[in-house]
């Protein structure tokens, strides 16, 4: 089992150096289950993130105060009751959550919806959008 550090990175260079020192033979425990450490190697190569990297990132964000989220695996489920139970298991709608992250699987890549309750806005984000496209925003 890889021991998780709670200290955050100051910049991308610092983060990259820390990732270089991660032992890729262990596993990382997250609220979504154990993730093989070698799966986060994608972070080192700056390629699109796979499911494991995405879940690790979601887990990290959800460990911050005021951020809730939905288990990314919900988007892969067909049964609606199982989907609802999985969503409920992460308690995304807790009153103390100022932001809730909803991962969305879009044609072979991950995107998401961010619900911001501080200003009552919702933003849909697709990382494959071009610079000329603005994220969709609803108030």
Automatic annotation (TrEMBL):
Domain of life: Eukaryota
Cited SUPFAM superfamilies: Cysteine proteinases (SSF54001)
This protein's name: Ubiquitin-like protease family profile domain-containing protein
Organism for this UniProt entry: Phytophthora nicotianae P1569
């Amino acid at each position: 089992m890889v021991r998780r550090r709670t200290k955050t990175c100051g910049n991308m260079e610092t983060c990259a150096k820390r990732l270089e020192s991660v032992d890729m033979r262990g596993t990382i425990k997250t609220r979504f289950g154990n993730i093989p450490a070698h799966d986060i190697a994608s972070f080192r190569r700056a390629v699109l993130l796979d499911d494991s990297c995405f879940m690790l990132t979601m887990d990290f964000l959800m460990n911050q105060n005021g951020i809730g989220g939905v288990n990314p695996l919900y988007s892969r489920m067909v049964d609606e009751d199982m989907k609802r139970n999985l969503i409920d298991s992460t308690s995304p709608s807790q009153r103390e959550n100022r932001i809730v992250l909803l991962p969305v699987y879009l044609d072979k890549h991950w995107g998401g919806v961010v619900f911001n309750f501080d200003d009552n806005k919702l933003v849909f984000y697709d990382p494959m959008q071009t610079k000329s496209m603005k994220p969709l925003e609803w108030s």
